[in-house]
């Protein structure tokens, strides 16, 4: 009897503990749902002049490879490497001795031919007078006149030979064909140069202005063309700005000058060329830059801050929108250009949508939230999410 009472007491305690545990579990399952507080911003159009970003390369506005036109020994170099030279400045002097001798010989031959012409001319005149008086035959006059005509032709031949000799002599002074910066000399005093050799002896690059050569896919170029065709400005000015490889913005603005007339069959791209001022010669041929081609005019766009955009595992962008009943809806969007710290929205949103800007990791589609702050935006207040004057980045 005592043994039965001993086991009965602990059993009652165990039952009480079990009931208590069940009550606590039921209470935990019925805890209240957390209320999420969010801030929103009401979407309004922004007036922006977007731009397209393209990789570019600096090309010299004019570039000349200097080569000799005659054969000879370099006597001296007459320019300073890396200096600015004017068109016509003498860069190299070739030993002119042989060419000067050729000129002297041609001059002597010309003088001899002129003397012969003078003599035969006088003879032809005399025979013409005698023929009028019937004191000579027609045959003798014809011979005298023929000799005179041959002498005139000989003078012309000798004059041409002298001109050629003088031209060859002038080539002993190798001159700058264009104005610009002269590069390193590839020859030294005493070097033998040959006429029309393939190797150049120096280069001259004109860099007061430079070309920015770019490549754009044919499809994206077509879209750019549509932008300009739909512009209300006739023949709009197309400014082009650039940034250097380290992100530094170049302090000059150029103009789009040329687009190729056909697509590269191997790459499917179209070549574009802009002219960029380079007054300080800071842009060197061959440099890689990032070019920004501004669209023809400012237009209205819907813009959202990058911090409000969430992406799925596949990378598709979307934003959370709150309706009039404070219910959250997740909307997929199509993004366009990047403008500062914001995105241009091409599709998916409309003016007046309330975009959630905080607590994005706590909300989900269909959730009811409490609005703490609903900011009304307009065109002027968009500067809070867009850095004015920042070039956009093309995603196409």
Automatic annotation (TrEMBL):
Chief location: membrane
Concerning Gene3D superfamilies, the annotation shows: 2.40.30.170, 2.40.420.20, 2.40.50.100, Helix hairpin bin
Q: Where is the Multidrug resistance protein MdtA-like barrel-sandwich hybrid domain?
A: 63-204
* MF (Gene Ontology): transmembrane transporter activity
Q: Where is the Multidrug resistance protein MdtA-like C-terminal permuted SH3 domain?
A: 302-361
As for membrane topology, the entry says: Lipid-anchor
For biological process, the GO terms are:
response to antibiotic
**UniProt KW Nucleus keyword:** no
Q: Name one GO cellular component term.
A: cell envelope
| InterPro entries in the cross-refs | MdtA-like_b-barrel, MdtA-like_BSH, MdtA-like_C, MdtA-like_HH, RND_pump_MFP
The keyword Signal appears for this protein: yes
Which SUPFAM superfamilies does the entry link to? HlyD-like secretion proteins
Multidrug resistance protein MdtA-like beta-barrel domain location:
210-294
Q: Which UniProt keywords apply?
A: Signal
Residues of the signal sequence?
1-26
Annotated ranges, domain Multidrug resistance protein MdtA-like alpha-helical hairpin? 103-172
PANTHER family in the record: ACRA/E-RELATED COMPONENT OF DRUG EFFLUX TRANSPORTER (PTHR30158), MULTIDRUG EFFLUX PUMP SUBUNIT ACRA-RELATED (PTHR30158:SF3)
Q: Which family does it belong to?
A: Belongs to the membrane fusion protein (MFP) (TC 8.A.1) family.
The entry's protein name is Efflux RND transporter periplasmic adaptor subunit
